[in-house]
Amino acid sequence: MLRTFRFSRAIPPAGPLRLSNSFAPSRTERLSARQASGPRIHIAGLRMEKKNFEDEAGEGDRSIKKSSAAAKFKPEVNSMQRLLSSDSSGGWEKCWELGLTPWDLGRATPVITHLHQAGVLPKGRALVPGCGTGYDVVAMACGERYVVGLELSDKAIEKANELFSALPNANYFKFLKADFFNWNPSEKFDLIFDYTFFCAIEPEMRPEWAQKTSELLKPDGELLTLIFPIDDHVGGPPYKVSVSDYEEVLHPMGFKAVSIVDNEMAVGPRKGREKLGRWKRPARPSSSL
Ligand SMILES: C[S@@+](CC[C@H](N)C(=O)[O-])C[C@H]1O[C@@H](n2cnc3c(N)ncnc32)[C@H](O)[C@@H]1O
């Protein structure tokens, strides 16, 4: 489904949404997704076979419905959820320390690499809140775009710096430890990219997420959301999301969707459960007084 709103300054059409048939069937969906995304940063020793967050979460939920015996198939997500629910302040750090990071794709999400390479992302300053290992941060960073990866977890930042600080584009990104909700940088952003952060926070925090996003973005800045996981599972994180969940909190902040389309470049089991949303705040008509 495509919803389009007209603005005085149009965002370039979302090219990637028409290209995704480059997903050729292959041995595994994940492998084909990697192939479809074009060049990728290769880092020796990087773990590539990480289980998928959504795969695990979805199966975990089904397992709970089916039988407790079946739940043992997805221990990583179950353990992560237990940890987060038992420790609201330090749960994320513990997940990182224990290597309970089932959301981690082990690479940038293909659509962000594609949008970057297609030259359709805003230049200037970009922010990735809850960036995790920071693959998406690194994928977008270039001479024309400085990217800040914001993370609550020291361990995540340590890992990101270990992996990426020697890359040729390392001058164009940084990882910063801060709580997104309390962070007040001196400069605003031209682009904010949210992927698996909205679904990771408690649903009652979503209005605050929208408020903070609005504060951090320049008036003509773009919010790019990979809306995931769109399904009907219970509990989280990841909590289920829908386009209307985003609209509910973004519309009061003045954001309108420029486009919302299926992300056909979604990896493996995320396919069909992920939409790309591009949001802006239309310029207010100037007063005639
Ligand atoms: C589900 S993970 C997603 C990581 C990354 N976006 C990805 O797709 O791989 C959510 C991340 O948000 C971080 N996080 C949670 N609450 C946060 C907050 N209030 N401020 C900044 N980061 C936060 C966690 O430490 C975790 O790394």
From TrEMBL:
SUPFAM superfamilies in UniProt: S-adenosyl-L-methionine-dependent methyltransferases (SSF53335)
Upper lineage: Eukaryota, Viridiplantae, Streptophyta, Embryophyta, Tracheophyta
Stretches for region Disordered: 269-289
Gene Ontology terms for molecular function: S-adenosylmethionine-dependent methyltransferase activity
Native organism: Linum tenue
Cited PANTHER family: PTHR32183, THIOL METHYLTRANSFERASE 2-RELATED
A single BP term in Gene Ontology: methylation
InterPro entries in alphabetical order: SAM-dependent_MTases_sf, TPMT
Alphabetically ordered keywords of this record: Methyltransferase, Phosphoprotein, S-adenosyl-L-methionine, Transferase
Name of this protein: Thiol methyltransferase 2
